[in-house]
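For the sake of transparency, this paper describes our internal protein records without simplification. Because each token names a local backbone shape, the row as a whole describes the fold. One such record is reproduced below, unchanged from the form in which we store it.
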Amino acid sequence: MSIFLRKYKVDQIYVLRQQKNTDREFRYEEKYIKNSINPVVVQHLFHKVRKHLKMDWTGGIEHGIERGWLIDE
């Protein structure tokens, strides 16, 4: 799947597995070793989403659009 990021305002990019894209031609070889998913990155993403879901949603989407953003940091 390909996403054209210039079209969107991107706030965060999470790199779950620090692996070079050039490795894709070797990834099916028996000796190839995948880097593991970084648990610190997953935990950061989890806490960010959890904080967003637990926040006060007073005003809803209309209030967020008037304010200019929907997700608080």
Remarks:
- The CA atoms of residues 14 and 41 lie 7 Å apart.
- The two ends are 28 Å apart (CA to CA).
